[in-house]
Amino acid sequence: MSQTFIVKGSSITDPSQNTIGNACFVRVHATANTTLTVTDGDSSVLGSVYIASGDTVIIEKAPKDKITCADSRASAVGSPRS
To answer: Is 57 helix (H, G, I), strand (E, B) or coil?
Structure first.
């Protein structure tokens, strides 16, 4: 299934405690089996999710929340309706 979104920044390889340009929506593509973790500005874990190799997810987060996800590529995205 194809997805339509607006690219809002550069792709980041293996993000670690990265706000991904203060994005509210982040597209993450796993290059190997991995766990994606979202933390807040105080580094408290808000949640985590397992992503299988080759899977892609779009995460909604607050601008200052950080993403850590080894073995992935992440990019800030937006909705074409925004």
So the answer is: strand
